[in-house]
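Q: How do we represent a protein-ligand complex in a form that can be generated token by token?
A: Start from the inputs.
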Amino acid sequence: MKILVTGGAGFIGSHTLVELLEQGNEVVVMDNFINSKEESLRRVKKITGKDFRFYQADMLDTAALDKIFEENEIEAVVHFAGLKAVGESCDQPIRYYTNNITGTLKLIDSMSRHGVKKIVFSSSATVYGQPKEVPIREDFPLKTSNPYGETKLMTERILSDVVKADPEWSVVILRYFNPIGAHSSGLIGEDPKGIPNNLFPYITQVGSGKLQRLRVFGDDYPTPDGTGVRDYIHVVDLAQAHLKALEYSAKSQGIEYFNIGTGKGYSVLEMVKAYEAITGKTIAYEVVDRRPGDIAECYADPAKAQKVLGWSAKYGIEEMCRDADRWQTMNPEGYKDEH
Ligand code: UD1
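Then emit the structure tokens for the protein with uridine-diphosphate-N-acetylglucosamine bound:
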């Protein structure tokens, strides 16, 4: 299949490119490098020994999008491109809505005008808000509490309306839980700008000595050890879910939603202990106040993805810690200065 990958230089995008190329797909990549580096694409080529066409372009640029569809016989789109930081989205809502919503509208409009009607969209468990219970099923009520989450939920709704208006579309919505880990080569991984917002890159940077100590956001949640529980999923497992989603979309029409998680929750302190045990490193931490907007527990019921897509997570916490640590050790400054 010839697939357009938007945001292909990012954390999940680059890992998905590797899996797509290794399975013999032809890919066309688009990225604006707002939150990613070109070096990640060079590393994808190094891992796979395969080449692909790349466009440095922004989704808001209709002419650039049209050019991509005119120059390539695209069959399906995997749409990762988007801004993704919750705190930043509260400070810059207009930028988030413009980029994530207007950008996606322009993408699907260009797809539609070029007869491309298959898309796999990166959504997030954030669309469930504070779930009524765990594990979370796809039919749970949806509610978000920040502009980033709103853009994910709104995009889901836009795509649902597109399918209603034209039943030839095939839309697969993947709701990611907490992606961590890295490719086993250590060549690609998560490269957050500045100080990481998310737990795991923070832990690996404390492990490597780049940051001093982790702040654990609250130990008074109604969880076994009082710290927040999440469903951490290896990014390579997550990447493979996109291949299953593409296979599914090739033979289906309409819209389907899937949780992409392991179904197992780990607390912040369990993650710290697992990382210490697997890497032999020490993670200094202190408990501080809860982070506003955080919930106690969030983990998936991944049964639907298993049943309908034939996908389930293969990697456990050991591989997640080991691979993230290898990436951090081999690339202490991320992709920096490799140009
Ligand atoms: C966050 C976003 C979510 C987004 C996801 C993408 C928030 C509130 N939610 O999820 O919308 O889809 O990232 O990856 O930002 N923690 C610490 N110390 C830290 C960082 C985190 O104790 O320095 C704790 C948090 O309180 C939470 C857990 O670690 O219990 C995971 O946090 P994080 O990695 O930021 O992910 P989420 O908040 O689940």
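The first strand starts at residue 2 and ends at 6. The two ends are 31 Å apart (CA to CA).
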